[in-house]
Amino acid sequence: MANLTADGMVRPELWPNSGFKLLERDGAGRLVVTDGFLRAYLGRPEMVPVAESCDAERALHAGLMADPKRPVGDEEVAALADADARGNYGIFLGFRDRLVSDGTLEACYQKLFQAGDVGLPVLFVNQMAHAIVRNILEDVTDPFQARAAELLFREQNATVEEGAILLGDAETISMLAATGGMGNLGKLVVDGGTKPKQVDLDVLQPENADIYWDRNERFDTVLDLTFPRPGLDALARVLEAWIAHFLGASVKIQPVQQITDERWVWHVGLDKEASVLLNDLYQDNEVSDERMQRLLSLFRLEFDDPNQMQSDIKGKPVYLALCMTPEKTLRLKPQNLLVNLPLARSA
Questions:
Q1: Are residues 49 and 86 in the same domain?
Q2: Domain total of the chain
Q3: Handedness of CA 65, 66, 72, 78 (dihedral sign)
Q4: Which of 17, 169, 231, 345 is the most exposed place for a label (fewest CB within 10 A)?
Q5: 128 in the same domain as 35
Q6: Which domain holds residue 257?
Q7: Same-domain pairing of 212 and 234
Q8: Which of 103, 94, 78, 97 shows the shortest CA–CA distance to 28?
Q9: What angle do helix axes 35-42 and 83-102 make, rounded to 10 degrees?
Q10: What angle, rounded to 10 degrees, do the helices at 105-114 and 230-247 form?
């Protein structure tokens, strides 16, 4: 059955360029790597031969387009005349071999961070997260959840004004600021080291949220993350689904305004800044007002089944935090929820 928007219209395809449609699902609902998915990478400008490309590069590209999973020896890459081409193929083939070996995008993504040595460009990591989140949101009809899910694979610019927390896509804001593109609602300021330019974008509100669907791949709407508005709750639901998909753990995540829990024993920062801040607060280290003002959101996470937690903290809550950098950017790291939750060894 087609997903419908709030006004009963058929929902447009979510993120058509995520690569999701080029993948297949296995019995567990995870994304299996296909030849079509790998060919999409071979079709990128960095990989397609140009007029100056040597015969060896053309032959390698043609061979991989015909059979994207075929073995490629080091000597084939070394035979490429152009150093950039050798570098690009080395990165692509390393990525491809990980995907094929692990079988699914989810397995590859999770192993990268469990091993502690990612060894892949951020672009590839974000593209995997993009497709995986698209898989998770297949049946979601809430535009707030779809917009909140963008945080898992796209950097955001944050504006905090009169108590409101607004997030806009960093790449889109930079582009609009440079070109003078304008929207209708919401004001975000890009701080790029030169004279700031004002950029207006549409802020998602309950009365206009369905505008997201027709524009979902433009990444040009603003998420209001203010407590207790729908955007913040939507992010909590997306994080719950992310954990369930990867870890098979059912959790409840609720936004909170402060941590006053004397039983506070575990926390997870959802980004680098938040991890450091929570560690300092937990250890009673002095934290400046300026750093505290960069705290955007707090959450309380509880396991539906406490037996899935480490025995020494079974049944106790886990606190999550989200912070912006001094430059007012936010890069959420969903992998932190895969490697830092207090799971029982058998979970």
A1: yes
A2: 3
A3: negative
A4: 345
A5: yes
A6: 230-339
A7: no
A8: 103
A9: 160
A10: 90
What is d(CA 303, CA 315) in angstroms, rounded to the nearest whole number? 7
Cβ(220)–Cβ(150) under 8 Å?
A: no
- Regarding whether 120 and 46 lie in a shared domain, the answer is yes
Same domain, 219 and 268: no
Same domain, 186 and 147: yes
CA 96/CA 250 separation, integer angstroms: 32
Single-letter amino acid, residue 215: R
Give all strands (DSSP E) within the chain, no chain letters: 24-25, 31-32, 156-161, 164-169, 187-190, 197-200, 202-203, 221-224, 251-256, 267-269, 295-303, 318-323, 329-330
pLDDT in tens, the chain (347 residues): 456 555 666 778 999 999 999 999 999 999 999 999 999 999 999 999 999 999 999 999 999 999 999 999 999 999 999 999 999 999 999 999 999 999 999 999 999 998 776 778 899 999 999 999 999 999 999 999 999 999 999 999 999 988 899 999 999 998 887 655 544 333 454 343 444 445 568 999 999 999 999 999 999 999 999 998 999 999 999 999 999 999 999 999 999 998 888 789 999 999 999 999 999 999 989 999 999 999 999 999 999 999 999 999 999 999 999 999 999 999 999 999 999 999 997 64
Domain assignment of residue 2, yes or no: no
The single-letter code of the amino acid at 289 is D
Q: Which residues contact 127 (CB under 8 A, 6 or more apart)?
A: 19, 153
Same domain, 20 and 84: yes
Phi, psi for residue 231 in degrees, rounded to 5: -65, -40
For residue 115, being part of any structural domain is answered with yes
* Sole residue written with tokens 């800044």: 273
Residue 200 falls within a domain, yes or no? yes
Domain termination site, one of 191, 224, 257: 224
* 322 CB-contact burial (10 Å; exposed 0-12 / middle 13-18 / buried 19+): buried
How far is Cα 177 from Cα 198, in angstroms, rounded to an integer?
Answer: 7
- For the chain, how many residues are written? 347
77 lies in the same domain as 117: yes
Flag whether 82 is in a domain.
yes
